[in-house]
Specification:
heterodimer, A: 260 residues, alpha+beta, outer membrane lipoprotein receptor (LolB), chain A, 5 helices, globular, B: 785 residues, Multidrug efflux transporter AcrB transmembrane fold, 3 domains, four-stranded antiparallel beta sheet, 12 strands, 63% helix, elongated, disordered C terminus
């Protein structure tokens, strides 16, 4: 039965069916399929090295660990622990992301030994001074955007769908994104971000994809180019672990202080 | 050029006049093709060479932090209340809309200011004005008080009296504009914000909106000078020049010919300039007036002789051949010296001044070529009627010459002493390049900017980059303490209106983190705490309002921004020293850099004067050598230095008495005028020498002869030149208007010196020589010319 559903849903993406489909429906279908394929990983852990590159080529490196918890029908929960630079070591950031309302955020400051809730509707600001905005790093949810299929294209050796998406969140920093999703695995290969005045702001390229649990693809290199400012940020992910046996209670305000 | 050659040349021109005319038109058409490469730059950075140290420092700072190009909407409610529902609603609307400005990367206003406060263990970060429609009177009051007590806003985006506010849009301009869209970015942006400003006033008629900032300045360069092109050039070409030509030659054909001739020279000069990749800029825009002015002199000399000969009964072609024979050499010589003078502007440190000099040099060279080819050819095909009577004015000069000779014993000391008196005022001149003052008060940018500095904030600034040299060094409590001390000290300086510093944010966050307890409004005393505050704060800011304008990538440096009152270059340089001195004395361990666009202008004056002076020296030497050869006299070549240099010295003396501000446009006047004033000297001395050598007249009679033959021509060409450069003073671009004023003055003075000082000097020199001759007969023989 399950197999049948899968075949049917895949069939719905085939071209002969697309004739009756609007571009919006096709775009949404592609997004749903991408989300469907990335469902069921439960929770994960990974290390990330973030390299900031200035216009003149100066570099600066930060290191963090990210733990994520899959939440059905809502944004995921994530816990970020800062390791480098040394001054922020042990700082932990808990976030419950939501599609259309402000995220819930808490920060544990070890120097103050306090957990602070941050109330802010901003998701568009830079993450740790990088070219990645908060909203670029939070989990992908179908509801965060509306979609429009643009065309089929080729990106390097990959056949891709080109799908435009429009943020539903009022305070998003973007008017639209152009996503390049490979047809075979539904991985996002590239995203072009257009700012509030609809000018190209940034280009994200996801490379070095690796498959985990024989099912879930994760890009281990993410390169964000700010074409307006000439700055760049590269994320290198490593030590991915899935289904590590953590639960809701590990993603709570109280858990923040205990984090090492 | 030998006479026979010149005569042959003249005969050839007259014989093949139609071919000459066709070739002339074709050559102009050929040069016109250069216009297809028409290019312009509206960016203040063009005033600086690529190697300019202040420009490099500023660009490096902009690469490290973020760009400082901006547009500022300055908003003044007519009812004097910024904190009313209606005004705040409009400002919020404008803040949103301003994000649509092309190339904008950041919009700051009192409504989107990221206000942070504490509620228990919650830290709230939100727009200072979220929902203006639903604010109570008490809310408005509260928000107003928060705004004026926030160091980041007061005197920057809100005035102390809460009557004027601003929305500042930061713009990322292309580094190396290639496409049409990039090249016209400034104009596109200016059109957008002007339209937006008009929309604001329409939505809320209670508001007055003014526009200032670097983008508005950039767009004002071409706009202010385009006005010159549309009004001043036609006045010159269609009124002044024809009038004087008529006065001189009394011939319609002559007037028409010289106007066309000048048109050819201008079009040709610009065409060639564009062909070689030149671009339009403020100073280059005024070249047509200068070329017109210079070109007319050639035509005057040739046409005056021509009409004189015809009056004396020569046929048209005889008159023209004779005119070319007599005038070819002097016209060539004066054109050559003028070209050298203008080319000397290439030594300047200001690229648009090179362009100015080069365009005029090409134009003057072309004017010479067309004066000896196209002009005679066209005159030959046009009907020429010459009134039998010579203009009466020609005889005024005879009496004037007699008077000068009679009074020479008085004139010499009077002129000499007056000159010394005036020259003593030269040191009064102070180098000053204030870019706001490059525009007359008629230019909206200038008026709006003056209003802004009177009522809200300055548009001059200095950015101080303080480098710790180590990653995350800015969180060090010691460092923060030093930055705070500096910021506090800077705030007490009378030149400073506002200080933007990271320590304000640090103190505010520390207070927020301690439940908004005012006692905690102080710097965090632990390095890790400060670093964690920054992390927290950075994570809660929206796009475009980040800290990259104050903190570099690896958090090893911070930039403190000082907003200043309108300062002269000197005051700014003094302030720069004050900044360096403070750090040398109080925090010598940091590497300090200070830069800003107006600092670039403050330094350019001195740098440019030095480089321009070397250019002037080269021009002076070249021109003096040419004179010695042309006059075939070393002695007179040396003597000519006095009438050639004295006019500029006197002009700067008078400037020192009445104006005293010398901007970069004036630094090139000496070299530029040298080539022009030398013409008067050449004409006067050559006539004097001809009288002495060929006619064997006494010095007194030779002076009289010089007055009779060239006195009137020199007077009239000087009037044309002075009128031409005087018209430049009507320009809204003060760089051009001051240059015009100074040049007009120098040329006028040159004529006075040539008439009142040179003749007495010549006679005096010969008297001394005669005295020596009596005692030493050998020398007398060798000096006989």
């Amino acid at each position: 039965m399950r197999k049948l559903v899968l075949i049917l849903s895949l069939l719905s993406l085939l071209p002969f069916n697309a004739i009756a489909e609007t571009a919006e429906e096709k775009g949404t279908a592609i997004a749903k399929e991408a989300e469907r394929r990335n469902t069921g990983w439960e929770n994960s852990k990974a290390k990330m090295v973030m390299t900031l590159i200035s216009k003149s080529g100066d570099k600066s490196v930060r290191q963090i660990r990210v733990r994520s918890l899959e939440v059905e029908n809502d944004g995921d929960k994530s816990l970020t622990i800062f390791d480098e630079p040394k001054d922020v070591e042990g700082t932990a950031f808990l976030s419950f992301s939501h599609a259309t309302v402000p995220d819930e955020q808490w920060l544990y400051l070890p120097a103050l030994k306090r957990v602070k809730r941050i109330s802010s509707s901003n998701k568009s600001g830079p993450f740790m001074g990088s070219e990645f905005a908060f909203e670029d790093l939070s989990s992908f949810e179908v509801d965060k955007y509306t979609y429009k299929y643009l065309r089929d294209d080729k990106l390097g050796e990959h056949e891709v769908y080109v799908v435009e998406s429009y943020p539903t969140y009022e305070h998003s920093g973007y008017t639209r994104l152009i996503n390049y999703i490979d047809k075979k695995e539904y991985r996002i290969m590239k995203i072009e971000f257009y700012d509030r005045k609809n000018a190209l702001l940034k280009v994200l390229e996801n490379t070095d994809y690796k498959k985990f649990l024989d099912q879930f693809w994760r890009a281990t290199t993410m390169t964000m180019d700010n074409v307006q400012k000439g700055k760049k940020t590269v994320l290198n992910w490593s030590d991915y672990e899935f289904k590590t046996g953590v639960d809701e209670s590990d993603f709570s305000r109280n858990a923040l202080k205990r984090i090492r | 050029m030998s006479k026979t050659k010149t005569v042959k040349f003249a005969e050839w021109i007259i014989r093949w006049r139609w071919i000459v005319l066709i070739l002339s038109v074709l050559s102009v058409a050929g040069m016109m093709t250069g216009f297809s490469k028409f290019d312009f730059k509206s960016d203040y950075r063009i005033f600086f060479s690529k190697e300019n140290p202040e420009l490099l420092a500023f660009e490096e700072m902009q690469d490290t932090y973020s760009k400082a190009d901006n547009v500022m909407f300055v908003i003044s409610p007519k009812d004097g209340k910024v904190f009313s529902k209606e005004t705040l609603s409009t400002i919020k609307w404008l803040t949103e809309e301003a994000w649509q400005t092309p190339r904008s990367t950041r919009v700051d206003s009192i409504t989107n200011y990221q206000y942070t406060y504490a509620e228990g263990d919650d830290m709230i970060v939100e727009d200072l004005v979220l929902d203006p429609e639903n604010l109570s009177q008490a809310d408005l009051e509260r928000i107003g008080n928060i705004a004026v007590s926030e160091p980041q806003l007061i005197n920057r985006l809100i005035s102390e009296n809460k009557q004027v506010t601003a929305v500042n849009v930061t713009i990322e301009m292309p580094d190396d504009p290639q496409t049409k869209e990039e090249k016209e970015a400034v104009i596109i942006i200016a059109n957008f914000v002007r339209d937006l400003a008009a929309q604001v006033e329409e939505r809320n008629p209670n508001l007055d909106v003014r526009l200032t900032g670097m983008i508005m300045m950039n767009v004002s360069f071409p706009e202010a000078t385009l006005g010159d092109l549309q009004t001043l050039v036609p006045i010159m070409a269609l009124a002044v020049i024809p009038l004087f030509m008529w006065f001189m030659v009394r011939s319609v054909s002559g007037v028409i010919t010289s106007v066309i001739l000048n048109g050819f020279s201008i079009i040709g000069a610009w065409g060639i300039f564009f062909m070689f990749g030149g671009y339009m800029s403020g100073p280059a825009m005024s070249t047509p007036i200068v070329i017109l002015t210079m070109g007319v002199a050639d035509a005057v000399h040739i046409l005056v002789t021509f009409t004189q000969r015809m009056r004396q009964g020569d046929s048209k072609s005889e008159a023209m051949i004779e005119s070319l024979r007599i005038n070819m050499a002097p016209v060539f010589l004066t054109s050559l010296t003028t070209v050298i003078g203008f080319l000397s502007m290439n030594a300047s440190d200001v690229p648009p001044l090179h362009d100015f000099g080069n365009i005029v040099a090409i134009g003057v060279a072309l004017a010479f070529v067309y004066s000896v080819t196209f002009l005679p050819a066209l005159i030959m095909v046009l009907p020429v009627k010459v009134s039998a009577k010579e203009p009466k004015a020609y005889h005024w000069m005879d009496h004037f010459g007699d008077w000068v000779i009679a009074k020479r014993k008085v004139l010499l000391p009077v002129v000499a002493i007056t000159s010394i008196g005036v020259i003593l005022f030269i040191p009064n001149n102070q180098l000053n390049d204030e870019f706001v003052k490059y525009f007359s008060k008629e230019v909206p940018f200038r008026a709006d900017t003056d209003y802004t500095s009177d009522n809200l904030t300055g548009i001059y600034n200095i950015f101080v980059d303080v480098k710790t040299g180590e990653s995350n060094g800015i969180s060090d409590p010691e460092f923060l303490k030093d930055i705070e001390n500096f910021s506090n000290e800077a705030k007490t300086w009378p030149e400073v209106i506002h200080v933007e510093t990271i320590t304000n944010i640090m103190k505010r966050l520390n207070k927020n983190m301690h439940g908004d307890d005012p006692d905690w409004y102080k710097l965090p005393d632990q390095k890790d705490l400060a670093a964690q505050y920054l992390l927290l704060y950075e994570m809660s800011l929206p796009q475009g309002l980040d800290l990259t304008n104050q903190i570099n990538l690896d958090k090893s440096s911070t930039r403190v921004g000082l907003t200043l009152h309108n300062l002269s270059s000197n005051e700014l340089l003094v302030l720069e020293d004050k900044v360096y001195d403070w750090f040398k004395e109080n925090a010598p361990q940091y590497d300090i850099g200070a830069a800003s666009s107006n600092m670039m202008f403050a330094h350019i004056g001195e740098r440019n004067i030095k480089s321009s002076l070397s250019g002037t020296m080269i021009a002076l030497i070249l021109i003096s050598v040419i004179l010695m050869f042309a006059l075939r006299s070393f002695k007179l070549g040396v003597l000519s230095l006095i009438p050639n240099l004295l006019p500029a010295a006197l002009a700067f003396g008078i400037w020192g008495m009445f104006v005293a501000n010398v901007g970069m446009g004036l630094s090139v006047v000496v070299g530029m005028t040298l080539g022009i004033v030398v013409d008067d000297t050449v004409h006067f001395l050559s006539k004097y020498l001809r009288a002495r050598r060929e006619k064997g007249l006494s010095p007194e009679d030779a002076v009289r002869y010089a007055f009779q033959t060239v006195g009137m021509a020199l007077t009239v060409t000087t009037i044309v030149l002075v009128a031409g450069f005087y018209i430049m003073t009507l320009s809204d671009f003060t760089m051009n208007s001051e240059m015009g004023m100074m040049t007009a003055m120098t040329i006028a003075i040159a004529l006075i010196v040539d008439f009142l000082l040179l003749p007495p000097l010549l006679i005096k020199l010969e008297e001394n020589e005669n005295a020596e001759t009596r005692s030493d007969s050998k020398l007398a023989e060798s000096t006989t010319v």
